[in-house]
């Protein structure tokens, strides 16, 4: 990716996060952005725990969903998620730092397909996801 494309991808992800109230509530930070890839993180806080006192699966899924959407957005097209599945491998606990690394692994005329790995700060795999995003003809713009 050339410098201009890299800068555009970073700007898109930055603006999307600024407009994303839920990800802000989760405390999402952008770790890295590349064309077709995005790594984000957040720290598990008390409201993110379920009745078993481990991180609610919806938090991991939401983090993965955000990373997947951001990775596809780096191409500059609006691309809503149309399918996304998750397999959990390990639980996360209070104060864990979670990392979601998304990569677009395939593009067709109308779809992006991507994968996400969610790890904790101890480099343990917590979940793997796969999803598809519909490529709209509209470019991403911000007011």
Summed over residues and divided by their number, the pLDDT gives a mean of: 97
* Residue share in helix: 25-40%
Ends distance: 26 Å
- CATH fold-type name: Thiol Ester Dehydrase, Chain A
Instruction: Give the full name of the CATH homologous superfamily.
Output: Hotdog Thioesterase
Please outline the major beta sheet: 6 strands, antiparallel
- Number of helical elements: 3
In terms of DSSP E residues, the strand content is: 35-45%
Which structural class best describes the helix and strand composition?
A: alpha+beta
Q: Quick one: overall form? A: globular
CATH class: Alpha Beta
Describe the protein's architecture and organization.
This protein has helices spanning 3-18, 21-26, 57-73; strands at residues 29-34, 37-43, 81-88, 97-107, 111-120, 125-134. By secondary structure, the protein is of the alpha+beta class. It has a six-stranded antiparallel sheet. 34% of the residues are buried. The mean pLDDT is 97.
Short description:
It is built from 3 helices and 6 strands; from the N terminus they run H-H-E-E-H-E-E-E-E. The protein is α+β, with helices and mostly antiparallel strands and 143 residues long.
Topology:
Layout: H1 3-18, H2 21-26, E1 29-34, E2 37-43, H3 57-73, E3 81-88, E4 97-107, E5 111-120, E6 125-134
Antiparallel strand pairs: 1-2, 2-4, 3-6, 4-5, 5-6
Which key terms come to mind for this protein?
Thiol Ester Dehydrase, Chain A; 143 residues; 36% strand; 6 strands; alpha+beta; six-stranded antiparallel β-sheet; single chain
């Amino acid at each position: 990716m050339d410098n201009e494309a890299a800068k555009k991808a970073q700007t898109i992800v930055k603006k999307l996060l600024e407009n994303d109230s839920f990800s802000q509530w989760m405390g999402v930070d952008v770790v890295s952005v590349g064309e077709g890839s995005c790594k984000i993180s957040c720290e598990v806080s008390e409201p993110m725990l379920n009745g078993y006192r481990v991180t609610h699966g919806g938090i991991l899924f939401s983090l993965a969903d955000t990373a997947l959407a951001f990775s596809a957005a780096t191409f500059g097209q609006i691309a809503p998620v149309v399918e996304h599945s998750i397999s959990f491998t390990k639980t996360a606990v209070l104060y864990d730092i979670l990392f979601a690394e998304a990569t677009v692994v395939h593009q067709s005329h109308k779809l992006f397909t991507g994968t996400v790995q969610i790890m904790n700060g101890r480099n343990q795999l917590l979940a793997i996801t796969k999803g598809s995003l519909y490529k709209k003809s509209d470019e991403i713009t911000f007011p």
